[in-house]
Amino acid sequence: MTEGVQPTFTAAPWRERAQEALIPPLVALLVALICGDLLILSYGQSPAAVYRLLLEGTWGNAYGFGQVLYKATTLAFTGLAVSFGLRAGLFNIGGESQLAAGGFGAALMGLALPVGTPLILALLVCMIAAGLAGGVVGAVPAYLKTRFGAHEVIVTIMLNFIVLALLNWFIAGHLHVPETLHTPEIHAGVLPRLADIDPRFHGSAANLALIVAVLVAFAVWFYLFRARGGYELRAVGLQPQAAEYGGISVGRVWMRALTFSGVIAGIGGINYVLGYKHYYEDGFASGAGFLGIAVALVGRNHPLGVLVAAFFFATLSQGGLAIHAFVPKQMMDVLQGVVILAVAMAVPEVRRILRGARGRSDA
Question: Is 83 a member of any domain?
C-alpha cells in the first residue's frame, strides 16, 4: 500500500446512503411547496399566511397535534401493510377492507369479553382478533394468486367491495344500535386516550394505538432486515425467478406477504374501535386504505419512512380543516397528489444526478 495514503472503508458508503436517503425527498418536498405556493396565489392569498395557519392548526396546539397523531396512526398501519406487500413485489390495494375487517373483529371481541376483563388481557385478545380478521381478508388474494395465478390488484380491489358490503349487511341487519350503523359500545379492551394522560389533548381522538403502530413498524423492520423470512421476501420482490432458483418457495412467500399485510392493516382497526369511538361504525375506514398506498410510496417502503410519511399526510389532512377560511380544504388533497408526483419524478432523477456526480468525482 502506498505510504501516506489512508484508505476509507465505511465513511463513503454511509455518506452516500445518507445523501440518497435525505436529499431526494427534500427536493421533492421543495417542488411540492413551490406548487402549493402557486395554488395558494391563484386564490389571491399569501402562501406564508396560509402555511402559518396550517402549522398553528396542526402542530401549534395540543388538540390539532392530537388529531394529526390520530390520523397518522391509521395511515401508519395501512402504509406499513402496503409497503410489506410491495417488498415482495405485490400490490395490496385491499387495505380499506382489511382495516374495516380488523376493526369489526376487535369490536366483536370487545363485546364478547366480560366487563371486568383486565385491560392488558382484553387489549391483547382484541388485537389478536383484529389481526386475524385482517389476515383472513389478506389470505384470500394470496391463495388465489399462488393457486390460480390471479392478479392481486384485481382481487384486492374486488374484495374491498365484497368485504365492506358484507360488513354493512351484518351491521345493518344483525348487530347495530337502532337508527344507527354501528355496533353497541364495547366496555372491554378500551385504549386510553392521550387526553387521559395530558388534559391539554382534551377533545382529541389520539390514543395509545399510536404506540402500537410504532411497535408494529419496528417489528416489520426487524422481520424485513434481520430475519430469514424477510430476506426471502425481499429476494422474491427483487427477482422472483432468481429467488426460486436459489431454493426459495415464491408461492409460499407471496402467501405469507399478503396475509401478513392484511394482519398489519387489520390491527390498525383498533385505532378507531378501541381508541376513539369504542364501537365499530360502517364506513370508518373510508379512504384510509388508498391513502396508505401514497404513504408507502412516499415512505419508500421503509418502516421508518412510512411513519414519517404518515405523519406528513396526516398533517396535510388536518391542515385542510385549519386553512378552510382562506382556501378550500380540497387544496390539501391536490397538494397530496402533488407530493406523490414530486416523489415519483424527483427522487429517481435526483438519485441519478447524485450517482453521476460521484462517478465524475471518482474518475
Answer: yes
DSSP state of 273: I
Domain count, the chain: 1
Q: Which grid cell sits at 248?
A: 426459495
Determine the residue type at 82.
Answer: V
Cross-strand partners of 281: 182
Residue 106 · residue 130 · CB < 8 Å: yes
Residue 128 domain flag = yes
In the chain, what is the straight-line distance between the N-terminal and C-terminal CA atoms, in Å? Answer: 20
Q: Is 332 within 8 Å of 317 (Cβ atoms)?
A: yes
Which amino acid is present at 33? Answer: L
Are the beta carbons of 220 and 287 closer than 8 angstroms? no
Range of the domain at 235: 63-352
Do the beta carbons of residue 314 and residue 71 sit within 8 Å? yes
Name residues whose C-beta falls within 8 Å of residue 276's C-beta, 6 or more positions apart in sequence: 70, 193, 205, 207
d(CA 23, CA 316): 21
**DSSP assigned state of 278:** S
With respect to residue 48, please indicate whether it lies within any of the assigned structural domains. no
Provide CB contacts within 8 A for 128, sequence distance 6+.
none
Q: What is the signed CA dihedral for 133, 314, 319, 160, rounded to 10 degrees?
A: -40
Place of cell 425481499: 234
On whether residue 74 sits in a domain, the answer given is: yes
Mind listing the pLDDT tens digit of every residue in the chain (363 residues)? 444 444 444 445 677 776 666 777 788 788 888 988 998 899 898 999 999 999 999 999 999 999 999 999 999 999 999 999 999 999 999 999 999 999 999 999 999 999 889 999 999 999 999 999 999 999 999 999 999 999 999 999 999 999 999 999 999 888 888 888 899 999 898 999 999 999 999 999 999 999 999 999 999 999 999 999 999 999 999 999 999 999 999 999 999 999 999 999 999 999 999 999 999 999 999 999 999 999 998 898 999 999 999 999 999 999 988 888 788 878 888 888 888 888 777 777 777 776 777 677 666
Question: Which residue is it, cell 408526483?
Answer: 341
CATH number at residue 119: 1.10.3470
